[in-house]
User: Fold phosphoenolpyruvate--protein phosphotransferase from Deinococcus petrolearius.
Amino acid sequence: EREAARAARHEPGATSDGQRVEVAANINRAADAEGALDAGAEGVGLMRTEFLFLERDSVPTEDEQEQEYRAMAAAMEGRPLIIRTLDIGGDKEVPYLGLAREDNSFLGIRGIRLCFERPDLFLPQLRAVARVANDHPNVHLMFPMIATLEDFRRAQAMFDEVRRELDTPRIPLGVMIEVPSAALIADELAQEVDFFSVGTNDLTQYTLAMDRLHPQLARQTDAMHPAVLKLIKLTVDAAERHGKWVGVCGGAAGDDVGALVLAGLGVKELSVSTPQVATVKAALRRRSAEDLRRLAAEALAQPNAEAVRALVKG
Ligand code: PEP
Ligand code: MG
Assistant:
């Protein structure tokens, strides 16, 4: 089975009856691009740019960032690349930034909130992305930890200002749906963004109030919980009303149950780790779109994640 999945890895992601579901890779460095493409990835659905900061002991300069984004954009050869702005804080600590300790770091100044506090970090990143996007129309930009409409508007305004300064074109702008409030206002957000990408790791953590790293809660912190699935459905429905698309870049996209349920909910892109690309494509190919829609509808009515997993595994 694994061999068959591998042999067919370069076919476009789709259900058995040909409904497209793009399967992209989560990679952080241009050096990993070749491996992802060879594994069958149809693009990069999440480039976690904080890894550029985490893997060294000083802030990467604007030029260094530009080089890395440029190398990634070029390596994709026209396939989509979604660059996510810095998501520091919570579980991702960068010691040399000298950030204040917080009692509840997952609920504090993390992600886009830190970027607003620290334009000295955010603006160089936005400039680097704008310059690369000027030469590579496949570049998309996405903001993490968006909780309110104002969060998006403020980030967008900063990017627009940078674009004016550099005279670079408009590019697709998206937000991560990883805070329940964002899913609940998806209708308003969908009028202003170009796309959504659901971060199921954080969305699950914040919906169930379970630390995503807590060892004792690990089994229960499952994105297949119907409460999480309902928020994803709200997001997809809102996006569809406004002609926008939804991807998923959290861990649930790469698990075989998760991929099927998410596709059934109407998700158009699954961004997964490189080794999962072929197996997710193979799982999608075994079911029809109608089959998946029915499965997702039933999943929403289950009492818990375990029941959803049992349902899908049949
Ligand atoms: C997520 O929260 O699901 C996500 C993809 O972002 P990260 O894991 O980097 O927080
Ligand atoms: Mg996240």
